[in-house]
Write a structure and sequence with these properties.
The protein is of the alpha+beta class. The chain folds into 2 domains: 95 residues, Nucleic acid-binding proteins (OB fold (Dihydrolipoamide Acetyltransferase, E2P), Beta Barrel), CATH 2.40.50.140; 300 residues, BirA Bifunctional Protein, domain 2 (2-Layer Sandwich), CATH 3.30.930.10. It has 13 helices and 19 strands. 36% of the residues are buried.
């Protein structure tokens, strides 16, 4: 019976064949222990000299790291293994012998591992991170599909900037200027006016020359947009969504979290509702914590976000930022127009902002005023203005950064490990 490692639990006591790679091995006299992987998981194959042919035992002892093979044996339960099973090997068929695999079971420098990212992905730690990433994506689709959202795909090539910034990748689109998208939000607002509740999931690009552990040049975002929803409605969707994906990872990635030595007790506390703190109160909190130079009207950096998050054991919403430091499309607070109806969701444990969201301006005259204040091209943004002209409604939305969320739930230090092939400042290979 041919099967995969993740399915061996169904074949205890039976003989199976698994196509796999040898990630590591060790031998102890008359027993060889093969650490096997097949993409679905890792399992130990035990080769006992007295129970196999001499050729098979010598093959097991001498096989090189990352050799591909078919291995046949009996599935047995193993309480000592985190996985819970092992394979009592009876025969081995080598498919391809790997020679001098560069990533050996020892410490390697970050740049070396990044240069060999195409091979580094095979390691147990990287496998666990990618499995958690995949679970977040799966849970995202389930959450929004089950709550009446339709997935809409915004364009990657655009003629304008979503947030009016200059940190864009420029390209030539035949005889006109174009940019790689920094957000699908504006297009998702158009989709929400057609379908009510929508979400997108796709790559975004920021030409920021940043080298922090939280930044990538190319990253993926989940961006829901919702008609007839105000800011408070949106906050409830955000905390329910984050709670849902955390629970999904805890439920379906327990082995991966164990591999990463993640403190799951901290994740188990992540249940809606989440605490909230206004921008005004955040400024006061920071001053109490020793940030004497922070003034009202300034944006928060990583040290500020970390200090605020330390006061909570759940993600915390920072609400109602000054309008001057937020995007042109955010709706002012009717009772206090110098601040906007927005929130950033800050993850615990120093992982920073994972969500930014707001209620959007729905008044066409106010949007025209914002165009003038931000020197936005009327031609490039005419279609966006028309969303307020033809049947405008209150609407809100947000964007969750996938890689920062993966880093937080995985407990890894740097976002470069949370995407298969990271694009960083000065790194475009492999």
């Amino acid at each position: 019976m041919k099967t995969t490692i993740d399915q061996v639990k169904h074949y205890v006591g039976q003989e199976v064949t698994i196509g796999s790679w040898l990630s590591n091995k060790r031998s102890s006299g008359k027993i060889a222990f093969l650490q096997l992987r097949d993409g679905t998981g890792f399992i130990q194959g035990v080769v006992v000299k007295a129970e196999v042919s001499e050729d098979t035992f010598q093959l097991a002892k001498n096989m090189t790291q990352e050799t591909s093979l078919y291995v046949t044996g009996i599935v047995a339960e193993d309480s000592r293994s985190p996985f819970g099973y092992e394979l009592q090997v009876s025969s081995i068929e080598v498919i391809h012998e790997a020679v001098d695999f560069p990533i050996t079971p020892k410490e390697h420098g970050t740049e070396f591992l990044m240069d060999n990212r195409h091979l580094w992905l095979r390691s147990k730690k990287q496998h666990a991170i990618m499995k958690i990433r995949n679970e977040i994506i799966r849970a995202t689709y389930t959450f929004f599909n089950e709550n009446g959202y339709i997935k809409i795909d915004p364009p990657i090539l655009t003629g304008s900037a979503a947030e009016g910034t200059t940190e864009l990748f420029h390209t030539q689109y035949f005889d006109e200027e174009a940019y790689l998208s920094q957000s699908g939000q504006l297009y998702m607002e158009a989709a929400a006016m057609a379908f009510g509740k929508v979400f997108s999931f796709g790559p975004t690009f920021r030409a920021e020359k940043s080298k922090t552990r939280r930044h990538l040049i190319e990253f993926w975002m989940i961006e829901p947009e919702m008609a007839f929803m105000n800011h408070e409605d949106s906050l409830q969707v955000q905390e329910n969504y984050v709670s849902y994906i955390v629970d999904a990872v805890l439920t379906n990635c327990s082995l991966e979290l164990q591999t990463l030595e993640r403190d799951v007790e901290k994740l188990a506390k992540i249940k809606a509702p989440f605490p909230r703190i206004s921008y005004d109160d955040a400024i006061e909190l920071l001053k109490e914590k020793g940030f004497d130079d922070i003034e009202w009207g300034e944006d928060f950096g990583a040290p500020h976000e970390t200090a605020i998050a330390e006061s909570f054991d759940k993600p915390v919403f920072i609400t109602n930022y000054p309008a001057e430091i937020k995007a042109f499309y955010m709706k002012p607070d009717p009772n206090r127009p110098e601040v906007v109806l927005c929130a950033d969701l800050i993850a615990p444990e120093g992982y920073g902002e994972i969500i930014g969201g707001s209620q959007r301006i729905d008044d066409v005259e106010l949007m025209k005023q914002r165009y003038e204040e931000h020197a936005l091209s009327g031609d490039a943004y005419q279609w966006y203005l028309e969303l307020r002209k033809y049947g405008s409604v209150p609407h809100s939305g947000f964007g969750l950064g996938l890689e920062r969320t993966v880093a937080w739930l995985s407990g890894v230090e740097h976002v470069r490990e949370t995407i298969p092939f990271p694009r960083l400042l000065n790194r475009l290979y492999p």
